[in-house]
């Protein structure tokens, strides 16, 4: 059931006033494929724009904090923890993992997904001059804990 619809079928922000605060955490990921020479340039620190991973990490963190401004009907949340990791895999891809946490009345899935997505887009933006063919894929929720709906873990 879609909970963002009212009794008339109109979109609205869900009222979480009566929900209890619980610890909630979500983990999302994105995968960015690129040419091997692009990844080598990043890893060797030779990219003309500087530390690509550091900039993408900060962009992901900033995006998580502003998710409610980007995604309609999302609640503004006081996140207590945001972690964005970028890790080279093989010779041609980077896995981005975003973890968001809070003690509150609603979940943080959208914040984690937004963080992973924006970090991937930032990686693309910083490297597009040398590799326009990069592919952003597999943006997905890996795990969610806390709240009324309980624990979720994606299949491998």
Strand order across the largest sheet: 2-3-1-4-5
The SSE order reads EHHHEEHEE
Low-confidence segments, ≥5 residues, pLDDT <50? none
The proportion of residues forming helix, as a percent range, comes to: 25-40%
Largest sheet: 5 strands, antiparallel
Task: Please tally the β strands and state the result.
Answer: 5
Distance between the termini: 26 Å
Count of helix runs: 4
What's the mean pLDDT score?
A: 89
The quaternary organization reads as single chain
- Shape assignment: elongated
Range of strand content: 25-35%
Strand and helix layout:
Elements: E1 22-33, H1 36-43, H2 52-65, H3 67-70, E2 81-89, E3 93-104, H4 109-127, E4 135-145, E5 152-153
Antiparallel strand pairs: 1-3, 1-4, 2-3, 4-5
What this model shows, in words?
There is one protein chain. The protein is α+β, with helices and mostly antiparallel strands and 156 residues long. Helices cover 29% and strands 29% of the residues. It has four helices and five strands, in the order βαααββαββ. The protein has helices at 36-43, 52-65, 67-70, 109-127; strands at 22-33, 81-89, 93-104, 135-145, 152-153. The chain has a five-stranded antiparallel sheet, covered by helices on one side. Helix 2 packs antiparallel against helix 4. The model has no long low-confidence stretch (mean pLDDT 89).
Describe what is shown at a glance:
The chain has 156 residues and is an alpha+beta fold. The chain contains 4 helices and 5 strands, in the order E-H-H-H-E-E-H-E-E.
Give the key terms.
Cyclic pyranopterin monophosphate synthase, five-stranded antiparallel sheet, 156 residues, 29% strand, 29% helix, EC 4.6.1.17, alpha+beta, lyase, cyclic pyranopterin monophosphate synthase activity
